[in-house]
Amino acid sequence: MEKFWLLKQKIVSFFQDNLIQLVTVCFVIVGIFFVVSYQNVHTETYDIEKFSAAKETIRSPITIENTRETERRLREVIQSVEDHFEISEEVTEEQITYINEVFEAVDKIETGNIELELEEEKLVSIADKVAYLENIVHDELLLEVDTQTFRALFQATDEERVLAKELITTALYDAYYNGIKVEEVDQAIQTAQQKLTYSTLDDSFVQALRPLIAFSIQPNSFFSADLTNEAQQQARNSVEPVMIRAGEVIVEEGQLITNEIYEELEVTGLLNEQRNFYPTIGLLLLVTLLGLFLFFELRHHTKKSELHFRKLIAICVLSIFIVLMMKVVSFYTTSVNPLYLVTPVATVSMLLKILVNERIAIVMSVFYAVIGSVIFNADIPGLLNMEAGIFIIFSQLASIFFLSVIKDRGSIIKSGLATSIINMVTICLFLFLSFEKYSWLDYLSLSGYGFLSAIIATVLTMGMLPFFESGLRILSDTKLLALSSPNQPLLRKLLIEAPGTYHHSIMVANLSEASCEAIGANGLLARVAAYYHDLGKTVRPHYFIENQMRMKNPHDYLDPYQSAEIILQHPVDSAKLLKKEKLPNEIIDIALQHHGTTLLKYFYFKAKERNDKVNEEDFRYDGPKPKTKEAAVVSICDSIEAAARSLATPTQDEIEKVVSSILEDRLLDGQLNDSTLTFKELEQMKLVICETLKGIYHSRIQYPKETNMKEAR
Predict the structure, then answer these.
(1) What are the start-end ranges of the H helices in 521-646?
(2) If you classify domain 479-697 with CATH, what class do you get?
(3) Most buried of 136, 325, 346, 468 (most Cβ within 10 A)?
């Protein structure tokens, strides 16, 4: 049993260390982030056979190229590219030159412009002319064109020869312009011969010219490997890679698994026995980064004594709550019905601002938005739902911004209504930016989701707040406002049993609140703590001078040691009464620390008048010294108010002297060593306290007495 108790003590002391608390809370939050988001990045594999029916709709978990399909399309495109041919202009010019030479030679022979070898020779007969023509034309021409064609040329008139030459050359140019392949030669010859057939030339002359046309038409379009390769390359470049997009439906439920579908399942890794762990590693890195940022942020606040373990627990519980809530909603969210818009995410941001502080609420809002974009990614690894992330962060930031002043529960309602407007505007923003066309009914229904989200968040905030305040005993502004009500039983007890102390506490509260607001501390906490700081005086109210109305001072009949014992006991009595009524620890601590370990000078010097050998420690408060700014401020304001009240003539100079004297005394006595007050803040406090006291103890008009008024009549 003793070993168990020792082990328990070690565990408790271990977790009481601030660093351990921070690490534990961050680890829990990061752990729940990872566990809840794991399914959204986890790649599931399937045992599917070809030509079977799909048991469920399967989407691609990644964006990847289907290389097989891309290669198939490339082959199809390359095969569809026709062979490219290059037209030879040399062939065209060569063949037309042959035709021109024939007609020019015929013309010269007919006109006698040709030079003969013998002067006595003259070409008179057509046979002689043909024979001479055959001697001077190209040998290739003689192989294709017979004597009848040459004879017809000499028998024709000059006009017929000119027309024939024009028709033949024109037909040749038309045929060669588009290129003539080997297999197209016969067709080109027929086309050219037909052009002469429909001319005005004699049919017999046209028939005689056919061999000449057949000789003139030769292939001039030849296969070009370079042009063909270039065309194939252009076709290859025009083919876009076949991509399978993340979230794309590969097969619908009940659909037959064809070869193509099976191939896509294989490409996306959905048939692999070995899972892809890269998305899991990515998620682990993401939550690790969030955990590091969270640790340094919380560490920053704990160093300033702005966070205690109960608030860390609240952050942890709220983080688990919102992540689980988003996960549950994600089960029912589809692309057609975006239910993430109904998620009351503003609940956590408002609770964090009320229970912790605004900065923590903003930082955590960013974290929740990042995790929300993963949770609402439709279980597609690598995809982040940016719309969900933007909606979550806008909704939370709006609730934080509009919850600027927390006076009562109505402030939460106002913040919820303002957040509903921001939610609806954000949703309309998504719809307007979308390429899809939406009807007014869609705008109203989806905007209604945002409105409902804010309303649910408001209700949840108001319902959950008391549980955190009472269960974790976290002191929120709403709790402080409730404690500041004059109808509180303890304040009524103070008012009835110690009215002078009650009035003194009100004055200290005003001074403390003004001072804290000047230096950036929690003015509301200081004010409420000041109301209760002297509650212990209700145990023996008449032993304190502010409650001694028209009665003798009982300390005149007591030994200084007895008087000191009574006075020194009142901070302890205050703490006991506050603990009994289960008030927040922050208020109890301020009540216990508001005198620190200061010296009860009046009775100390009174005791020294009787005996020089007086132990100073007997006349000092037990403490502890103020640990926070608010406790230090209440301590200073308590002494200053009492001293200012004792001034016979509270002039401005006297007030400034009293304030400076008390501040200097507290510094020299080391009462502010444990607090985080700086000299600059003390100077700011001094100015505010002096201005406030001058307003309280300002000069007033001296009204004439009734007897003087009668004499004046």
Answers:
(1) 523-532, 560-580, 585-593, 601-610, 629-645
(2) mainly alpha
(3) 346
Q: CA nearest 503: which of 550, 546, 566, 551?
A: 546
Contact 656, 618 (CB under 8 A): no
Q: Which of 472, 480, 520 is nearest to 630 (CA)?
A: 520
**DSSP structure string for 308-373:** -HHHHHHHHHHHHHHHHHHHHHHHT--SSS-GGGG--THHHHHHHHHHT-HHHHHHHHHHHHHHHH
**Count of CB atoms situated within 10 Å of the CB of 416:** 28
pLDDT tens, position by position, 58-80:
777 667 777 788 888 888 888 88
> Can you give the residue ranges of every domain in the chain?
1-39+277-474, 44-66+242-274, 85-113+122-223, 479-697
Query: Token pair for residue 157?
Result: 């008139």
CB of 291 within 8 A of CB of 22? no
Q: How many CB atoms lie under 10 A from the CB of residue 394?
A: 22
Q: Please report, in angstroms and rounded to a whole number, the separation of the first and last CA atoms in the chain.
A: 93
Distance CA 121, CA 107 (A): 18
Tokens found for residue 107: 């013309």
Three-class SS state of 152: helix
Q: pTM of the full predicted structure?
A: 0.65
Determine the angle formed by the axes of helices 346-355 and 440-471, rounding to 10 degrees.
30
The dihedral through the CA atoms of 74, 77, 82, 84 has a sign that is negative
Burial of residue 251 (CB within 10 Å: 0-12, 13-18, 19+) is buried
Alpha-carbon separation of residue 535 from 493, 496, 635 (angstroms): 9, 12, 15
